[in-house]
Amino acid sequence: MISISSYFNNRYQILFQEIKKQICIQEIPNTKDIWVRDFMPIRNSKGKWILFKYFPKYLQNPKFHHLISDNQTICKDLGIEYEYVDIIMDGGSVVYKNDLYFVSERVFTDNPKLSKEKITEILKEKLATENLHFLPAMEKDFTGHLDGVLYIIDDNRILINDGQDEYTENLKVRLKDLGFTIEFLPYNPCQNKTYQSARGIYINFIETDSKILLPIFKLPEDEMAMKKLEKVFPNKEICPIDCNDLAKEGGLLHCISWD
Questions:
Q1: Rounded CA gap, 216 and 24, in Å?
Q2: Which of 93, 183, 212, 246 is most exposed, with the fewest beta carbons within 10 Å of its own?
Q3: At residue 166, does pLDDT exceed 90?
């Protein structure tokens, strides 16, 4: 079951229906924006929901406060049992599977009163893992997120954007030093008019037990991304979803979903 905001259904009815044709959806009511990945809880390695304080740096200006959803009330209304942790960290900053967690270094700047050592200690305890690694976010990404940068295939393989830039090279070296095998997914944001646009970023997909919902953009790389994911996930159906309109807001399918 994948959860998506009712607010997203109101704003993107056609896209919502396209997603609903492929997977079962539960709607989350009473959200103030569509990016449920960011304010909903993160599952720790023992299966327990951990809810973090949702007050990221990019929403701290008072003019953006109306976009901050009350994640504790939302979880209580949905009957979700969770442990609350008073550390600012939004879900797009964390990429995880099983006991492996990658966390954006943005968590350090969002919590300046805590030392890096203390934040690391708390996250390892609450996420119930020693397999936690901090990675830098892309310099121009004001959110500091990682879910538009990499995806965990399994315990040994990591999928990253095939970016021809210094950030990608440094990320590749870092992941290889940690012992991971790297796979590359096509990546082409080069024609975007603003840096905020997520057009051409294929890695922000939804994975279910049987399907991959892949954002596509009517770009030549669409077909290449589909073929790559067919190889990476040979037992799953790759379902392309046109996300050109959504991409203008800076996020894609993984950002608007929670599971």
A1: 20
A2: 183
A3: yes
Q: Specify burial of residue 146 (Cβ count, 10 A radius: 0-12, 13-18, 19+).
A: buried
> Six-digit token pair at 192?
């975007």
Q: Which residues contact 183 (CB under 8 A, 6 or more apart)?
A: 153, 157, 158, 159, 160, 228, 232
Query: Which positions ≥6 away from 101 have C-beta within 8 Å?
Result: 94, 95, 123, 127, 129, 131, 132, 133
Sign of CA dihedral 183, 46, 36, 131: negative
Q: From CA 108, how far away is CA 243, in angstroms rounded?
A: 32
Distances (CA, A) of 67 to 33, 52, 64, 80, 173: 6, 16, 6, 22, 37
What six digits make up the tokens of 110?
């969002």
Q: Which residues pair with 181 in a beta bridge?
A: 157
| First-residue to last-residue Cα distance in the chain | 7
> Which residues, other chains included, contact 193 with Cβ-Cβ below 8 Å and sequence gap of 6+?
none
Provide the pLDDT confidence category of residue 194 given band limits of 50, 70 and 90: low
The candidate with the shortest Cα–Cα distance to 159, out of 219, 221, 222, 202, is 202
pLDDT tens track for 152-163: 999 999 999 999
> What is the pLDDT, as a whole number, of residue 1?
84
The residue count of the chain comes to 259
**Residue 99, C-beta contacts closer than 8 angstroms, at least 6 positions apart:** 45, 128, 129, 131
The DSSP call for residue 62 is G
Beta bridge partner(s), residue 150: 160
